[in-house]
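INFO  loader      accepted 1 record
INFO  loader      residues=592
INFO  predictor   begin
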Amino acid sequence: MGDFTVGDEDFLLDGRPVRLLSGALHYFRVHEAQWGHRLAMLRAMGLNCVETYVPWNLHEPFLGRYEDVGALGRFLDAAHEAGLWAIVRPGPYICAEWENGGLPHWLTGRLGRRVRTDDAEYLVHVNRWFRRLLPQVAERQLDRGGPVLMVQVENEYGSYGSDRGYLRHLADLLHECGVTVPLFTSDGPEDHMLTGGSLPGVLATANFGSDAREGFAVLRRHQPSGPLMCMEFWCGWFDHWGADHVVRDAVDAAATLREILECGASVNIYMAHGGTNFAGWSGANRAGDLHVGALEPTATSYDYDAPIDEAGRPTEKFWRFREVLAGYQDGPLPELPPEPVELAGVFTADVGEWAPLSDVLDVLGGEESESSVPPTFEELDVDRGLVRYRLDVPGPRQPYPLGVLGLRDVATVYVDGARAGVLDTEDATLPDPVPGGAEVELWVESLGRVNYGPRSGEPKGITGGVLHERQYLHGVRARGLRLDAFASPEGVRKVPFRTPAASGAPGLYRGGLDLPPGTAASYAWLQLPYWGRGFAWVNGFCLGRYWGVGPQRGLYVPGAVLRAGSNEVWVLELDSAGEAVILGSSPTPPLP
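INFO  predictor   done
INFO  writer      dumping tokens
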């Protein structure tokens, strides 16, 4: 039990100044079996608090259907057991490089740019969600014997909008749902962001990766009193598919951490441990300073070059941060928990069983719809996955170019059953003309919904139309395949598997992987050398997207997913299959 308040200069715990040394660790990016270890690593680094977002779309994937909302409460209990306070950032929007910034696809698909505003229909859904989610936060607040010290209002709202009525509604709603601990906002240390994202009577905090004194000076212009806090100290960064792996020098990051603390401020290290975007929940960004350019999909690994790496091991950055944080402790730092155990040996999975995408769609897909124009993913109720669009080119007519307007994000096109090309720009045209009387199939995959900036919430799929010369082709049959359709092993086993029709053929591959008796490991890596792009599962657990463009070369496998003896592996290849699937202790496959 205790009383945590915001003072004129400091945070106060039972009336005494206290500094928050927090680290971001998202419960939804870490297998629950590993929560305890990762939280102990935060304590050993010298932190006294953990921060987490809450992704609405993970817990309400369909309107009114909730899934494991209680995971947040269990995580907060684990943090309390580890001796950590907690900061909760429930959104409803979270950014976080997470699919759609945490907003459900069924919500943005219906409301578009009305989300994140004082729109009555939007707020009906927010009110309902918060009233379902927040009781577990309220009962775990510090004054009720729990770890929760603070709760955030929205997230970096000043980077998006200026609707103060919306922010005030959220603050009032948090109070109505039983939140009595201090509220706060967080924004970049820029005048327009702090003006748009802060709220009178609510503590404003700043997010930055360097130049702490300058950042706090801007914050002080907007908030003359109250404790200083960097709510997101960006100690690393995330990766985009097809780009270089991002690394930040450990000495440089430690120097900025020291600068923050020398300013007398509290800090939340983002990320202390990044974890993994399992099950295709990675978001995406738009390129350019205004975030309106080409799509930049986020990788499955959310390692973030953090002090605790994706496998839970300390990095050089961990030890540098621990040295800095040691000077802000009341006593000696805790010892590190036992280091995670890597899988011993290299094992090859036999994935010789195969089914074409059409057969997988027949068993696991939704109902086929018919409409004049192509429906979006949102209209087909597909969040993560792909959609097959089928249409006929009228004839007789001469061959003309076939193009797609408003494509998001990748379409593999077949003409009369033969692969005709891959389209990967918003307005794209096949290289070869298509004759009249042809049947066209477009298999369209979402690479992740935008999670930040003015194009957040945009729909997926074919959002414009299909053109033959300048003429729209109407009469579209569309059918969606959601990624969570693979959640049932019994459903997957109904797929009619057989020998691959051709080397490298796209489709669903299935096989086994045997581990010796007594095998015990905290982690392993699934390696797919020479595979194109798709998703992989081990024992029904979706590891996420793989993609040969890099920079990520292996998929992290939590040890709790593996078992001694027989393990089942599925690979949904959407481009061109490789020859081997390897489980080992390294993210980099042993190539010939």
